[in-house]
UniProtKB/TrEMBL annotation:
It comes from the Eukaryota. Keywords: Signal. This is Cytochrome P450. Gene3D superfamilies: Cytochrome P450. Residues 1-19 form the signal peptide. It comes from Aspergillus lucknowensis. InterPro entries: Cyt_P450, Cyt_P450_E_grp-I, Cyt_P450_sf, Cytochrome_P450_monoxygenase. Belongs to the cytochrome P450 family.
Amino acid sequence: MLTLWLATVFLLSLFLVRRLRSPVAKLPGPWYTKFTSLVLKYHEFTSNRRLYIHELHRKYGVAVRIAPNEASFASLEAIREIYASGGSGYDKTELYDLFRQFGIKTMFSTLDKYNHSQRKRELADRYAMTNILRAEHISAIEDRAKAFVSRCLAQRESVDIYVWLHCFALDGVTNFMFSSGGLRSLDLDKDFEIMEELTYHQSLQKNLLQYYLPNLAPYFPSRLIPRRAPKTNEYVLKMAAQQAPTQHSLVGKLARQDSPLNHAQIAAECKDHMAAGIDTTGDGLCFLMWELSQPRNRRFQEKLHEELWCAAKDTPLDRLPYLDAVVKEGLRCAPPIPMSFPRYVPGGGRTIDGHFVPEGTIVSCQPYTVHRLDDAIFPNPDTFNPDRWMQEKGAAERNRLFFAFSTGGRGCTGRK
């Protein structure tokens, strides 16, 4: 019995010494984060991780320890090191395995930089501005925008723009991906059902359970299993099998005759882009329209209306500076993906913003904090104010800290 007790004390002491001697332990942060990640996991499962980490940054500064093997940063130096060093930054963590489609790794869920770059070459030109601004793509967006306005005008009182903006986003992204095979969820009930299937669920916690407890996942009851998307899957598999897709569509590129991708990989990539496009665009536009509708922000709405009203019909979008400022401020205040983008520190360890961090440590930045922490660059950071982007003073600093789409070679492909 004494031997068992001594062995337990020895192992516990060894555990504590290792934790305390770790370079991560030298980062500022709550004392308990030196020993356990349970507090962080609690905030993940209660959908409060983003605000929890933000409050830690407000208390401890631009670098903070959030778990024994995980740290969060919120500085330009850290962003460049983690996400842009070597072109593509550090490798992604296994968290991104949760975003496989049909059990297949896509460009987004590929963890290492090399395989990601190989996949990115297959579709990067689809997201080049020259392709995005093709007449057929612009025409589809205009058609869906008119359908959205018609839906809003049909309501006599208040309008649930969350619903119709997610329809608009889904129709837009599927028309871009599949051209004439795109959805019309603003008009058709059967397509509306796909929007509901993709949007109205809370599967992140269920996915996290599978991530943290993979050995137990096969035994989970049905209520703990992420919701399936049979209608979406059927639609995507059908579209990915088109015999003669439109040349300038995403599926047209992926399904070309000399493509290295098979049908399942093409379908997985398409579903990934489809799922990514609906919530990010729908949520971002919903927040932006809500902010513009507030009486306190009427002056911003009037400035935007004046610019759009006075501009010639064929004015390029990048020649509308106040529209750009409004959209940018919406993405600053409510980035569609506000949470951390976790990465592994490479072999040998790295110095991040003056702090040495050993290899294998999980490091990240989160847009929500990057856009708020430095109030010298973003005064009154919690206030929606597009005018801040119209000021010449500090413009370079603001743009460098704009992190809504991440940055580097693994930044959002659809940012344009």
